[in-house]
Amino acid sequence: MAVARRIRTHYSLLLLGIALFAAPATGWSFGDVSFMPVDDYSQRWSLAITGRTQTSPYKDKDFHSDIAPLIAYSGEIFFLAGTKAGIHAFKNEDWRANVYAAYRFGGYDRQESGFLAGMAREDGVDAGFDITRITPLGDFTFDATSDITSKSNGQVLSLYWSRYYEHGDWKVLPWVGGSWYSADFNRYYYGVEEDEATADRPAYYGDETVSFRIGTDIRYRIDHIQYLTFNIEYERLGDDIYNSPIVNEQDVLKLGINYRLEFSDEKIEPTGRSYDFLTSKRRPWSYRFAAGTSTDTKLNEIIRGSHIEFDDTQTKLVSFFGGKQLMRTFFGTNWEVWANLGVAYRLEEPYQDNFFEYVAAIKFFYSNFPWSDTVLTRFGVAEGLSYAEQVPYTETAKKDADNKGTSHLLNYLDFSFDANLGDIFRSRSVRHCFGGFSVHHRSGIFASADVYGPTDGGSNVNTLYVECLYN
Residue 111: what pLDDT? Predict the structure, then answer.
């Protein structure tokens, strides 16, 4: 059980944070269009928006577009890259090796009509590793993954070549390779079970197969914190996938465009010393303890302050967040930027067992109020990702009659308002601490982003907290 929870913790920190507007989702999920190598050890945090479009191999499905979120961190040991979270296990001049968990976009949602009516396949989570041989001719990578969520119970093995080409602010990374998909993988995502078979859709169990893949990353550095990335990938599916009665396209094209903000105003001196995110004393750390109760009040009403309640008959939440400041000013404004990681414990009895929730987010603080010289006051807003070991009761209770579903993985928002306890109590002992109110929000953004599945609703928890800063 402890191992499973550690895996889920890594999974919860996948980079999926800022989906604000998107086209309506259809009944199949995206592949990962971002080919993001994890050979960057700069210890920078990023927040991005990725627009994606992709053809579907399934019958009755065509192009689909949406906007997916992304939080990224490139550390010496830990990394978040694309839809991966993992550890740099080994590196030298000739070799790199990583161990990771990755979100598997695959399958399709339950349909009320169409060729896939009565069928559903869910996204999953893979555990994997990759080993890269670095040569003058390019990098040769072997990658192996296996489903750990008992969705497909399948495996994928990939072998590919890639190489960087740089010119000024442009960086191009072409790559080419192939992927082997196991029989279990193909049966789950492209097969038809006996109880799903119809006259036009006979039972089908595909065997293992190999697909050809080719793509490229094109990255442009706008300035020291803004980047644009263009992705394109083509995949030629193997025959055991293409022969499925629910598949009518053998060629899959994936396109993506990514706008990324890299948060750091560190001025690295040309002394050969590199920036260290974890040990740098130029940026303070924070820790926050919070507790509260769920509420049926809508988020916009809570933010406006029109209806804030703490009902002890509702389910409850306690949480701990750790964070570190990334920027003192954002684009020259009075907003600070922080990276936050948190774990919450949901007290859901008697409705269901209690469980953990994991959060990764980028948070912005504004404190330049007219009275802040007397009582330092902060308004904060965070955007990120929440993964719950179970779906919270308030979200399952809101599941609508159209069966739009629920999801363990949802978008996370946090709105907070606090004041410095040292200023309030005139005490130096708590001069680095703040006390205040926050709303802990999970939602599927109206089922508009495939990464959150068909989830239309969400949940709110009103909390009171104490947050302290230290160097």
Answer: 55
